[in-house]
Amino acid sequence: MNETPAIELRGINKSFGPVHANKDIDLVVKKGSIHGIIGENGAGKSTLMSILYGFYHADDGDILVNGKKVTIADSKAAIGMGIGMVHQHFMLVDNFSVLENIVLGAEDSAMLAGGLDRARIELKRLEEEYELRVDPDALIQDLPVGLQQRVEILKALYRSAEVLILDEPTGVLTPPEADHLFKILEVLKNEGKTILLITHKLREIMAATDSVSVMRRGEMVATRETRNTSMEELAELMVGRSVLLRVDKKPAVAAEPVMQVENLSVTDQRGVQVVKDVSFSVRAGEIVGIAGVSGNGQSELLETLAGIRRATGGTLRINGETIDLGTSTLDAADMRAKSMGHVPEDRHRMGLINSFAEYENSILGYHRDPAYSSGLLMNIAAIKENAVAEIEKYDIRPPNPMLKTASFSGGNQQKIVLAREIERDPDVLLVGQPTRGVDIGAIEFIHSRLVELRDAGKGILLVSVELDEIRALADRILVMFDGRIVGERGANADEGELGLLMAGVEDQAKMSVEGSAR
Amino acid sequence: MSAGQLPRWVDYGLIPFVNLAAAFLVSGLVVVLIGENPLEAVRILIWGSLGYGEGIGFTLFYATNFIFTGLAVAVAFHAGLFNIGGEGQAYIGGLGVTFACLALDHIVPWYVTLPFAIIGSALMGAAWAFIPAWLQATRGSHVVITTIMFNFIASSLMVYLLNSALKKPGSMQPETRTFEAGGRLPFLNDVFPSFGFGYAPVNLSLFVALAACVLIWLLIWRTKLGFEIRSFGANATAAVYAGISPVRTIVITMLISGGLAGMMAINEIMGSQHRLLIDFVAGYGFVGIAVALMGRAHPVGIVLAAILFGMLYQGGAELSFEMPNITRDMIIVIQGLVILFAGALEHMFRPAITALFMPSQAHAAEEA
Ligand SMILES: Nc1ncnc2c1ncn2[C@@H]1O[C@H](COP(=O)(O)OP(=O)(O)OP(=O)(O)O)[C@@H](O)[C@H]1O
Ligand SMILES: [Mg+2]
């Protein structure tokens, strides 16, 4: 019981300008355990881990590795102490092979060849020991995200990491990939490695960790043995109040269709048909959810409807007006003018301009609205006023419209996008992955805003790879597989059945439905 | 990420100053190596450029050129475009000024000609930027390559025109006839005799340049078009998401950029030379890139950087006159060092200075 902990942090403090991101943090991580860290967006989880990995320096406080006090000057020093990190955004060279990426930065001589051969042998050993199989000669750009992540883990193990930090590792993974990751973590743990896992998903904490620490607004508020706690308790500790883990909504009172899509087909830049003859409609006052494993055409469908991508054929009827998508030249601005809002799946790449101040992003796409201009010039005062109102209403933290968007934490950035799109009161709202990387308090808030918008008689098309989210929000569920809509189910569809449809096992699912429908 | 949190005076004052100091330190070493006294050299350089009225006049004259070409590069920067074609656009812009002046100089006074010269130079400069812009926007041909190629085309075209249609009849020189009073901007020495600008060619186009600075500031930070230009430059994918047309943004930005470069010709042709002649652009278009870099693509920064380069041009000329060991080439080396430290190595001192200022700022904020 009195074993020295693998990692111990004592009184860690870290400020970014006026933001006190870590306040007197104490943390003890037992050797050979999986230790979860949870907390709201901006609670300071990533900052704390970056300090441990030598990315940032603590303003004060001590770090103990295996009971010895250390200073970690940079990530090289951290690696030297056996600490490895898998970042949320992978740090791999796309056009290098797996092997080259693993060796990169750890070459032990100027000549690559000998090192590569030795690395290949070592990699083989690691693969066998931990059941982490990847083709060492594959190029990173050809690998799916799940495998890329595996390369990151191998990279850390190759550098003989004893402690592995994973920052929101499942945010980008499909459910089966995530399951596989947790199996790997289990193997690593059994081999005596220590794992620090940051995640927003309480289910993962309950399923995978031995103990869990909760952060709130820069402070460490509690540490629990996982088996002695519950999702409800953790949620409450995180947010500081009790959280509804399910959406509270009345049945939809759907009216006339506000958006009808017919025979939509889309071909991507490689010439592959990614959306195949899709037809569906969204009625006023309902949320239609599109379920599916990512990469089955949902993203392209959403982008095409938003006017960002061109279709090869199909029609869109919105608010009674019919548009031939095969020939239309309408862009995103034109679609917004038809009262269609769009929360894109990837807020960093598409939804926000990171170098802009918050208030500038609060009108991105709506900057031509006369409300924000006076004469030839933009009305900065009006824009800021609107931004401040949105910040207040959506509890965006820190509440500073002048702050660069990049300085907001992930969940708060998401709120900036949602506030912008929802507050324009669109008749149709396209929403992609609204709660990716968002903490549960914010999820509750975002979900209730979407339901409110629905109840105000608007139509919402929701794309999410989180089946739980679809099931919680949608009034009707469409399942996409391989570019096609392979099934439609009601709000209380069976999870297993949806899973089968998502995996493309159409017939069995159909049979079981037909069986139950009769 | 943390750069935005630095105090403005550090970001826009201290860091450029440290960069500049480093450039001069290295230049000083070079001066020592060739056996001259570096302090004396600095004294001559500063005296020559700021020490007396005529020197100041020359400095401001060069600065006027740099403001136009620096603004041109800066506007394109904001859209993420690298307009290397200022040289050619300014050269062709000279045609616009010349047409206005040749047509009007003997009928109307200069202040009637000036608006036509401004419009003419901007239109011609913009026209010269149009084809590269169009190719970039619709075909993805890189604007860096195409604008460089258009510099060469401009050069050949002007040699041809100045040896044929535009040449003064009966003259051997490849240049137009000299403009009458209606095609000449007043020298500042005539407008403000008390400053004693002497024979320095600084003229009223300095005020055109300053007005352009104000208008460009308004355009970039206060108009919808500027918002679109900056959005596109910072994140093109997000710009498309926002309904901003890449083709339109690229073309309009390059037209504005080319127009500004073209306007440089007002200073040289209508303000100083009073005739169109071969190679009057003389590298000002290229130095505009350094001016824009050093001025952080902001009009105020550009004015300051333009004055600095004006000083280097004017003070450098004095220096090579006073210290024969320091040749014109040496001056170019010094200019190169300034460009290197202020532009390319801009990030060399930044991390250290940031580390120095962030903690103290954190404390100040906490106490407040
Ligand atoms: N480089 C930085 N400069 C300024 N502020 C920062 C920086 N990095 C983080 N912050 C701020 O510090 C706080 C903690 O951020 P951190 O990224 O650690 O949060 P997090 O718990 O990982 O959140 P999320 O779950 O959204 O990823 C936030 O308020 C954030 O805005
Ligand atoms: Mg984080």
Tell me briefly what this model is:
The complex is a heterodimer of chains A (518) and B (368). Chain A is of the alpha/beta class and 518 residues long. Chain A has helices spanning 45-52, 75-80, 98-103, 112-130, 145-158, 175-190, 202-208, 231-239, 298-305, 332-337, 347-351, 358-361, 380-393, 410-422, 440-455, 467-473, 495-502, 506-517, and strands at residues 7-16, 19-29, 34-39, 60-65, 68-70, 83-86, 163-167, 194-198, 211-216, 219-225, 257-267, 273-283, 287-291, 313-318, 321-324, 340-343, 373-374, 377-378, 428-432, 459-463, 476-481, 484-490.
Structural notes for this entry:
The complex is a heterodimer of chains A (518) and B (368). With 518 residues, chain A is an alpha/beta fold. Chain A contains 18 helices and 22 strands. In chain A, 34% of the residues lie in helices and 25% in strands. In chain A, the strands form five sheets. In chain A, strands 6-7-8-3-9-10 form a six-stranded mixed β-sheet, with helices on both faces. Chain A has a six-stranded mixed β-sheet with strand order 16-19-20-13-21-22, with helices on both faces. Chain A has a four-stranded antiparallel β-sheet with strand order 2-1-4-5, with helices on one face. Residues 511-518 of chain A have low confidence and may be disordered. Chain B has one domain (8-350): ABC transporter involved in vitamin B12 uptake, BtuC (Orthogonal Bundle). Chain B has helices at 8-33, 38-50, 53-78, 86-104, 110-139, 143-163, 188-191, 205-222, 224-234, 236-241, 246-273, 284-294, 299-322, 328-344, 350-367. In chain B, α1 packs across α2 (38-50). Chain B is globular, with a radius of gyration of 22 Å. Residues 360-368 of chain B have low confidence and may be disordered. The structure holds adenosine-5'-triphosphate and magnesium ion. Magnesium ion binds next to α1 of chain A.
